[in-house]
Design goal:
This protein is an alpha+beta fold. The protein has helices at 6-13, 17-25, 44-56; strands at residues 3-4, 33-34, 40-43. InterPro entries: DNA-bd_dom_put_sf (IPR009061).
């Protein structure tokens, strides 16, 4: 399992960092754990599945 930081997820999805954090707060993108500074870390497979779902629903 590969973990991605907020910044990596934002770059992959093409959205701002703050939006990734909002998705995590709203449990639309579930964090696997947190890093040392308390920022969420995401499972790479979950991020890929979220991107596919979001594109099917009309885009990010």
């Amino acid at each position: 399992m590969s973990l991605m930081s907020v910044q990596q997820v934002a770059e992959y999805l093409g959205i701002p960092d703050i939006r990734v954090e909002r998705l995590a707060r709203e449990n639309l993108l579930v964090a696997a754990e947190t890093d040392d500074s308390g920022k969420p870390m995401f499972n790479e497979d979950d991020v890929k599945r979220y991107k596919v779902l979001a594109e099917r629903l009309g885009g990010l």
